Give the backbone structure.
Amino acid sequence: MDMKKEKTTSSPQKKKSQAQLILIRFTKNKLAVIGLIVLVALMLTSLTAPLWLDYSKVTHQSVRESFQTPNAEHWFGTDQFGRDLFARVIYGGRISLFAGLVTIGIAFLLGIILGGAAGFFGGAVDTVIMRFTDILMSVPGILLSISIVAALGQGLFKMLIALSVSLIPRQARTVRSAVITMRGQEFVEAARTYGCSNFGILFRYIIPNVLGPLIVGVMMGLGGVILQIASLGYLGIGIAPPTPEWGTIISENQANIMYHMYLGIIPGLFIMIAVLSLNFVGDGLRDALDPKMKN
Amino acid sequence: MENLLEIKDLYVNYETDESVVHALNGFTLNVKKGETLGLVGETGAGKTTMCLSVLRLLPEGVSKVEGGSIQYDGKDVLSMNKSELRQMRGAQISMIFQDPMTSLNPVMRVGDQIKEVLSLHNPELSDKQKDERVDDILKLVGISPDRKDQFPHQFSGGMKQRVVIAMALVAEPQLLLADEPTTALDVTIQAQILALMKQLKEKFDSSMILITHDLGIVAEFCDSVAIVYAGEVIETGSIEQVFERTKNHPYTEGLFNCIPDLTSHAARLTPIPGYMADPTNLPTGCKFADRCGRCIDKCRQAAPEMVEVDPGHFVKCNQMEKGGSGL
């Protein structure tokens, strides 16, 4: 009650830090909070896995124990080699989530730099950067990743590069069009009249104003990347077995899904939950990062 | 008095694929130190182009300065390099835009936006000194310093324009370019903002070019006035000289005839017939000839020269004689 009263009556408000304001706005979106909790829980369980779950369980094979449905000893059951699915899914999350974050991080940064420069400076800079992205975009994303992996060879790091490259064009285009709409705004012109440099205008005036939609794009993109990693894994060119990864797990068990459904459903559920949570968090962040959405 | 800004015979074109727009055609204007000059003219006459030329902020690629010079405080603006220009913008010359709603950065606190100008031009100040300056300038424009942590959307239009003025003045520039600063505001706020600008201009002892469509505002707030038509100044003089209405350019006369007054009983106001000369295809003679009731053959053939009808009062019309009444 007190909180409410204070909000409506106090016009010379006390200074709340930007972070506090963002937190307040974020917590108003229940779905986003749930998404964040799920996401943090997923990340924590896979990050701390080595502390409470022996890695040997991931690769330990035992034919006698194959195709066990979920039970007290093997929570998610076992696959055709008798490997513990729970351990594989938990350790698989380490790769799926970590690789997703790194990939999207690289694509986000390079996208802002390339797209920002293209949109802001226009002219020749724009043409060169955009034709470059056109070339990348003319190849379907998954095919591009496959070709890059084929050229560089298999491995976690190479897969990260492949995925980032296939994501940069879209990211750069989004940033570019957002920057172009902002560039013509009067406050940007005003910033020039009081002597702000190009660099200052781009990073203090234009980028902060387009960050909201970009963040959502990134969050949704992160979901997409996890799916792509899973797809590459499923196609057998992602992470080399026996290292588990959500897509690889499904791919390995493909032949047996017909009679042992849990082998496909459980890792699939993890992918779905992670992607869904990311989308919710993305939506919440967009609203939270926009100071105009205060009330 | 000494001239702070001298624009001499400035020609600016906007070049597009289809045509060349002649925005400024021999624009000549002097602003003295401490003076408030009203710049009046219809839409498209080149008022904003003039401001942007002075700040060298004309859109790159499409605009071209074809000739003439701009001297600010004895320095040639057209030959300045990028860093000199950045030093000049905001610190020496600053500009106030028409629409306060869009001229503030929506994601920056207003205090930080004002502080940014100080950081650019007075980097020697400590953070605390800057904060003090921000508080001072906010008080001057009538905003409580408590509100400096708020965002632009939390302010009303008039308050935003006060913030914009605070930003324009915080580095204490010598020359203020106010491009229709009150057009987007209602009449009562208009008067407040103009009075505030006048008061601050006097406090900082700066000069101001006030662009407006409103001759009433000019009469009330300016020392002198320049009338712009089709990219050139066609009449300039002190407020008294121009508003006396004895020796005016026919266009200026036309503008005066568009204002209702309290004493006459005219049922209808007299508008100026026709449209402004097409800037992509300007006539060779006087650009006002087609709309002028007193047009003679000479006007169609030769562009008129500036004539000093009274000391300090210039009119660009073929029918004016030096020192005489003409017409």
User: Anything to note?
Assistant: Chain A touches chain B at residues 12-13, 15, 123, 185-187, 189-197, 200, 204-205, 208-209, 290-292, 294 (CB under 8 Å). Residues 109 and 149 of chain A are 22 Å apart (CA to CA). Residues 1-13 of chain A have pLDDT under 50 and may be disordered. DSSP finds twelve helices and no strands in chain A.
